[in-house]
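Supplementary Methods S3. Input chains for the assembly prediction are listed below.
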Amino acid sequence: MADYTVIHEKASSFYDVFERKAELQHQTHYCPGCGHGITHKLLAQAIDALGVQDRTVLISPVGCSVFAYYYLDVGNIQVAHGRAPAVATAVKRSRPESIVIAYQGDGDLAAIGTAEIIHAANRGEPITVVFVNNGIYGMTGGQMAPTTPLGGKTTTSPFGRNQWTDGFPMHVCELLASLEAPVYIERVALGNNKQIMQAARVLRRAVENQVKGLGFSFVEVLSPCPTIWKMQPVEAQRFVEREMTKTFRVTNLRDRTKEAPARPAPAPPPALVDIPRILGLVNGDGAATSEGRPPARPARALDVRIKVAGFGGQGVLMLGEVLAEAALDAGYEVSWLPSYGPEMRSGTSNCHVRLSSVAIDSPLVSRPNVLLALNEPSLRKFLAAVEPDGIILYNSEHLPEDCARPDVRMVTMPFTELADQLGNSKAANIVMLGALLETTALLDQERVTGALRRKVKSQKWFELDLAALAKGREEVRKGASS
Amino acid sequence: MRKQLCKGNEAIVKAAVLAGCRAYYGYPITPASEIAEAAALYLPQAGGIFLQAESEVAAVNMLYGAAAAGVRAMSASSGPGISLMQEGFSYLAGAELPCVVADITRGGPGLGNIAPEQGDYNQIVKGGGHGNYRNLVLAPASVQEMADLTTLAFDLADEYRNPVVVLADGNIGQVMEPVEFASRAFVPPPPEWTVRGTAETRHNLICSIYLEPDLLERHVRKLEAKYQRAEREAVRAECWRTEDAEIVLVGYGIVGRVLKAVVEMARARGLAVGLLRPITLFPFPVAQIRELSRRAKAFAVVELSTGQLVDDVRLALEGRRPVEFYSRVGGNVPSAEEVLAFVERKFRACAPMEEVLIHG
Ligand SMILES: Cc1ncc(C[n+]2csc(CCOP(=O)(O)OP(=O)(O)O)c2C)c(N)n1
Ligand code: SF4
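Predicted structure tokens for the full assembly:
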């Protein structure tokens, strides 16, 4: 008797009267001899001993302990079957000062919630998980659990658990002990008073670890279920002591509480006034990012529906973005929609761009009045859709004979080669842009260079793009004068 | 603040952070991944949490935890991931917890494809989870609305203590348009009923279990009354050129945009066409539709599904007017010209319109 104290008082983390319970508010809903009742009591004592009643949030599972919140006088959250570790993760991350305890049965944790427990453990969530393993589904009336021993007869394994059809009992502690992050994993049993005293110590440590800010702590409790096992309470307790412990070794599987590195404290949140800057909505000095440019009014009525198309890597999307950005700056309504879904096959890419002096209805361009075709497949694909009186810029020396459209303006130039002459064929898109601007006077030069300035981060590329714009313009002028 | 160009998916995250969202829990899926990526970039800098969950099942339960702890939280996904979240929607609604989820829809069923479809309507608007609950559903049609309706979603979620879904398609997620964000950020204080690991919240309980039939009935009636209040107070729809419309087109999201173009084209050809674009899908703009039916002689629903929204339009009209239906699926979005041809085919030929009424 020397090594344990007899506690006559109820822990204060345990309600005096179970008001949340509809009837018989002085007794629990657990069966006589049920391990849940004992585990609740030990947990309440640990919470008391550590003085964290106000800070504790208990996550109750689906299973016989679904009503843990009837009994524990702490913050309570009842959750879906198996999901306690996911909920606990978010509660702890939301309220790092809280002491979050996920309480789960073996169906809950080791079957339906396998993914959630493994990943919470693997992330090293600094929570405490209490895993009550009674080898059976209690609440639903005695179906097989992942932890049912081989040969165990249940309502869904009437001939006994068979290794060939049902697999082996699952050793959750051992499984979790293969992960790096957990700091504390121990299996205890409720098979006799001595084991219960050990369980009390271990549960307390598992909560204490969290109070100290250490990582993931896990306690598996081998627990009697006299009702479903069809045993007297004493007999069931003996079964835990003699039989269950043969399948599930009562032992510590991980204790890194001494060497566990302290978790880095979360950085203090920024001031609310800094949020727009963090989101890139204003510059460092608080001015809106687009400010500093003269607020423009649309210079004239415009309804340009552009399709830009080519191979991936030809800068199709970028060309469209520069047009949209420059037109926005010039005071127009704009939209830009990248090719996406079924259009995006075999390495081709296209985007829909609309520039308009009035509100834009659909951002989809089905009948373009400007087609910028960076390769032949794109030309062929969209040629017929171009509206009469539209304009097509096509990247090639010659227009294929069968692609003539006398009703549209056709500018055929080897943009890739022209860009190559500037030192990088990838600037072909911007040479084409220069040619478009020279042909149509769509947008002022300074709007376009401004857009490029904002889009192109590298100085070298920016200069190349300026040269490319000039080249495109120059080639069109040459063509016109020749 | 001046307008700046922004992608729809990114606008959701920026608006969310400005509206006090401080947690994102999600699992990647095209075409919603950009939302997770933007959240991973901005939330930690804003003092919030970004966590890539092991699945959408875990993610939605993390929303449950964050909401229970009083933090504005969101997730985003698309068809297959939304299917996995249905358990969570039911639990969140049952436990009266707020959250915001963006569903950037793609083609289905099964793996389908990543192109824009509107096949998630039923599972989101009707509620794909178990029990008597509804999601509040907002359907943006532009980048500006991606931002504005995300802000609204957080407010509605808190006001109704219920999940709110921003239901957008891949196109609205991908499109880049000028947008003006709220100029100031704020974070609302956590509601009193939350469980935060403090003395004052110690007696709070979050749960959705009511063993006694009478108690559960009372709870379900309470939820029902909330949804009825939403039907009275939260409905939004855009009516476009409907004042004199004889034919009303109905469509949401990207389709709503295409239909605007159709209205202009049809009117240029002498057809009195207007557009009703539901902005809230639940609550559904029933009253607006009935009001329009007083003048309009027929309705035409266009959607990227084989017929989900159209059921609600028919229910709203209760047979008052004929309802024509045009659909594209698989990721195809009809062009304005294509819809116009449909409208002309259906309505040009059958003047006088009275005939439609009789035989429609
Ligand atoms: C998604 C889902 N599937 C099934 C159930 C039914 N169910 C309730 S409890 C339970 C098993 C509980 O067993 P266990 O976790 O071992 O806890 P015990 O009752 O033995 O303490 C099951 C299958 C449910 N509530 N939810
Ligand atoms: S069925 Fe088993 S686990 Fe459930 S309360 Fe009874 S003894 Fe406990």
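Residues A 62-65, 81, 105-108, 132, 134, 136-140, 145 surround thiamine diphosphate (ligand 1) (CB under 6 Å). The longest strand of chain A covers residues 303-311.
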